[in-house]
Design goal:
heterotrimer; B: mainly alpha; C: mainly alpha; 2 domains; 83% helix; 0% strand; oxidoreductase (chain C); EC 7.1.1.- (chain C); NAD (chain C); transmembrane (chain C)
Chain lengths: 612, 115, 187
């Protein structure tokens, strides 16, 4: 048991070490095949370990590895905790991770940084596994920061382009805001419960006598961390820019796993959030606002990857809304299905981009269905899931979400979620239509890649497509962990409403695409939406410009000037006094006498002043 | 007459010299020595002036010790003499060396050695 | 009676010191210095420090200054040196330093005057008491003083030694190495 849990995180970390240190050991560049075997193989082994763990061992289990810090009363153990939630998350990480690794082995072929790419990806998988298996908040924070680091490294993977480096820095800074809040929240929680263990802290919350306001603040701080990592309002602006990274990275980190860490954190600490109605409400409102804002932005994007990025933000918003409604298992279920179909969408998009010679703009595509039938089918399955068409995996999870919001939230939030569903239908259909149907714009299709690469990229697409179609029937067994708020039976009305909203969205989109209206007002509105509701410009004006202004004002650095003045003064005094060191004995004697005289005078005067 | 009586008598007679007079003499001697160190350029005279200063300090020690009937003053005197002996020995050796090298005793020329 | 003799001794000491300081001839100055030291020895005796008085005569005047006498004789300063001293002792050279020292003296005297001397039972401190104090309370300092003397001895010996033998040896060495080098070069 303990060996298996360690191996799940250990194989990818070992793979990372092998890939990172290989040039040192073998003293020549590692071949692409060897890199791929190490990179994919380590994750495959990890997935096998997960499969054995999931089928053969009862959860929950606690694995204590070693003591990390002991400063009474602070005690941090390097300990892992595995329960049904962890197993579910590990399944997504290792399973989807393995498929994406396999895809990347073909996709990245010929890149200069092939070995580096797999080293980063392996490190990411290990860190993410560590994050979800962590028994205490410090270990969780370690994994949290490591995945943030990997995200930074992989967004800026093609670092020779300054734009990519800028996007990486932006992602790092934006998530860091949330990370800092998370750290403060961890410390505050330790202050309140006197323990850092997640299970121990959640158990301690059940005891009476806690300061409710402090606990609410802790919950909000953890929420801020989750918001940063999961790209929710107001920290969502980094994710669309993060698409600068390679497409497999977008699929693995920025769709399937890392951005869901925030959802995992809230689900993991659900007892804390449930203790404060205000915190739950905040989660729900942030989620709903995000799903509307990001969904509407996705409607008008022209870059295929940015559409998918905004749709990811929007789907994460759904998960947050469900978390806020107390439907934790529904949120996790949607997390799993979303990982399947969004990874599928990204990989299919990546394969498409590869075939149209690295063009990402929707305007450069169109009518590709006849030329790329396989990719069209894969993308279609993904879009159907995204739009939650009936009988797909996305449909089942989305229905759970809507049902929970219907039962546990005020009606206006439910209506917002329903509108969001309609918008989802619109943009899903739009992107599918714009790429594969309509007038043919891209005649310049590159020829098929070699067979090995075709195999490496095809198998993951097929597997993910099947998972996305059938995933709805493999609901994760989370009843042992969450006492979900929605105990009510499925409502037919809600189900029909959701489906109708989606179909309405698709119909609207069809109508729009057929008519192509181009009025001035709509153009302005479109530009506003394309900029993601102007959040970037707002932050630019609110934070970046004042900081730049201050730095410009302080260009000479006032403090440095002060120190420079002090040093100049010292130097001057030194030069003046060193003139006294002229080596003449009589001069020394004279100064000695004069100083003595002065000292006596001062002492005498002081005695006169202080004496009677 | 026993020893105690002699001591008492001597104490009686010794009391007539006030401490401040002894210290004033020490101060005056010191200042004379200091003047000597300031105005003489011959290194021999500088050394002699230094001796006067040292002696003045020793006088202050002894006077204060005697005033309080304490042996510490004379102990300090012994140390001062020790110091003076060592200092004179080294200083005179240096003077000889200096004279042998430069054939002068002008202390201002010693300052030129700095450069 | 003691008071009168104290003042006489003090006057002698001061005058002798002053003469020593302003004398042109080094030997004269040294003699004046000895007179001054002897006068101070008298004062020591009068204020009740017989051991200090004896040491002053034996060690200070007797040993240290005799050392200086030897050195002055070795240096053999003649008439030229006296003329040189006369030239150096011009009025503009000594007026300012003297007034500075005078100011210091005035200040110190004023302070002494200001602090009233408190009468305490003054008594003669015998040599035995001093010896006891030195070898009990100040034993460590005595040891340190012996180190100072030793250092002075070694230092003076090293500094005053003529280096002719040494330098001759070193030049010999240099010459021999040169010859060895040249021999090698030939071979």
């Amino acid at each position: 048991m303990s060996a298996l849990t360690v191996l799940i995180a250990g194989f990818p970390l070992l793979g990372f070490l092998c890939l990172a240190c290989a040039p040192l050991l073998i003293r020549r560049p590692l071949s692409e095949s060897a890199s791929a075997i190490i990179g994919v193989g380590s994750v495959a082994l990890s997935a096998v370990a997960w499969a054995i763990l999931a089928t053969h061992h009862a959860s929950p289990a606690y694995v204590h590895l070693w003591q990390w810090v002991s400063l009474p009363p602070l005690r941090v153990d390097f300990a892992l905790y595995v329960d049904a939630l962890t197993i579910t998350m590990l399944g997504v990480i290792t399973g989807v991770g393995l498929l994406i690794h396999l895809f990347a082995a073909g996709y990245m072929r010929g890149d200069d940084g092939y070995r580096r790419f797999f080293a980063y990806l392996n490190l990411f998988v290990g860190a993410m596994a560590l994050l979800v298996m962590a028994d205490n908040l410090v270990l969780l924070y370690l994994g949290w920061e490591l995945v943030g680091l990997c995200s930074f490294l992989l967004i800026g993977f093609w670092y020779r382009n300054p734009e990519n480096a800028r996007a990486a820095g932006k992602a790092f800074l934006m998530t860091r805001i949330g990370d800092t809040a998370l750290l403060i929240g961890i410390i505050a929680l330790f202050w309140q419960t006197n323990t850092l263990g997640i299970q121990a802290a959640m158990a301690a919350l059940q005891d009476p006598g806690h300061n409710d306001r402090m606990l609410a603040i802790c919950a909000l701080l953890l929420l801020a961390g989750a918001v940063g990592k999961s790209a929710q309002i107001p920290l969502q602006t980094w994710l669309p820019d993060a698409m600068a990274g390679p497409t497999p990275v977008s699929a693995l980190i920025h769709a399937a796993t890392m951005v869901t860490a925030g959802v995992y954190l809230i689900a993991r600490c659900h007892a804390l959030f449930q203790s404060s109605a205000m915190a739950m409400q905040t989660v729900a409102i942030i989620g709903t606002a995000t799903l509307l804002v990001a969904g509407s932005s996705a409607l008008v994007q022209t870059d295929i990857k940015r559409v998918l990025a905004y749709s990811t933000i929007s789907q994460l918003g759904y998960m947050f809304a469900a978390l806020g409604a107390g439907a934790f298992s529904a949120a996790i279920f949607h997390l799993v299905t979303h990982a399947f179909f969004k990874a599928l969408l990204f990989l299919a998009a990546g394969a498409t981009i590869l075939r149209v010679r690295h063009k990402q703009s929707l305007d450069a595509m169109g009518g590709l269905a006849r030329r790329l039938p396989f990719l069209c089918a894969c993308f279609g399955v993904g879009c159907a899931n995204l739009a939650a068409l009936p009988l797909t995996a996305g449909y089942f999870s989305k229905e759970h979400l809507l049902l929970a919001i219907w039962h546990n939230q005020p009606p206006w939030l439910w209506w917002c979620a329903l509108i969001g569903a309609a918008i989802t239908g619109m943009y899903s259909f739009r992107i599918f239509y714009r790429i594969f149907f309509g007038p043919v714009k891209a005649n310049d299709i590159s020829r098929l890649p070699p067979a090995a690469t075709r195999w490496q990229m095809g198998v993951p697409l097929v597997a993910l497509g099947l998972l996305a179609l059938a995933g709805g029937w493999i609901a994760p067994p989370l009843e042992s962990i969450f006492v979900d708020a929605h105990a009510e039976p499925a409502s037919l009305v809600v189900g029909i409403a959701g489906t109708l909203a989606t179909l309405l969205g698709i119909a609207l989109c069809w109508w729009f695409l057929a008519r192509r209206p181009g009025s001035q007002a709509l153009g302005l509105c479109r530009e506003f939406l394309r900029q993601g509701w102007g959040f970037d410009a707002l932050y630019q004006r609110l934070f970046v410009r004042p900081v730049l202004w201050i730095s410009r004002v302080n260009r000479g650095d006032i403090v440095t000037q002060i120190y420079r003045g002090i040093s100049a003064l010292s130097l001057g005094a030194n030069q003046f006094l060193s003139r006294a060191q002229n080596g003449t004995l009589r001069w020394y004697m004279a100064t000695l006498l004069a100083a003595t005289l002065l000292l006596l005078l001062v002492v005498h005067a002081l005695a006169r002043v202080s004496g009677p | 007459m026993n020893a105690q009586a002699i001591a008492a008598q001597s104490a009686e007679s010794l009391q007539q010299i006030p401490l401040s007079h002894g210290l004033a003499l020490a101060a005056a001697l010191f200042c004379v020595g200091a003047v000597g160190m300031l105005i003489r350029r011959n290194i021999l005279f500088t050394l002699m002036s230094l001796e006067i200063c040292t002696n003045a300090v020793a006088l202050a020690f002894v006077a204060a010790g005697a005033h309080w009937g304490n042996p510490d003053g004379q102990v300090m005197y012994v140390f001062v003499v020790t110091l003076a002996a060592a200092e004179v020995a080294i200083a005179l050796a240096l003077v000889l060396l200096f004279y042998r090298r430069h054939h002068t005793l002008d202390i201002d020329q010693l300052a030129a050695m700095r450069d | 009676m003691e008071l009168v003799s104290f003042y006489i001794s003090a006057l002698i000491a001061l005058m002798a010191s002053l003469l020593a300081v302003i004398s042109r001839n080094a030997v004269h100055a040294l003699l004046m210095l000895i007179v001054s030291l002897l006068a101070v020895a008298c004062i020591f005796y009068q204020i009740g420090a017989p051991l200090a008085a004896a040491l002053q005569v034996i060690v200070y005047a007797g040993a240290i200054l005799v050392l200086m006498v030897f050195v002055i004789m070795m240096l053999n300063q003649g008439k030229a040196a006296v003329d040189q001293e006369t030239q150096w002792l011009a009025r503009e050279n000594w007026l300012a330093p003297a007034s500075l020292a005078g100011a210091l003296l005035v200040m110190m005297l004023y302070l002494l005057w200001d602090s009233a001397s408190r009468g305490a039972a003054a008594r003669s401190v015998s040599a035995a008491e001093v010896g006891l104090a030195m070898y009990s309370k100040y034993l460590l300092v005595v040891e340190l003083a012996s180190f100072v003397l030793l250092a002075g001895l070694v230092g003076a010996f090293h500094l005053a030694r003529r280096h002719t033998a040494d330098s001759a040896a070193s030049t010999n060495n240099a010459a021999s190495t040169e010859s060895v080098k040249s021999a090698r070069g030939v071979r």
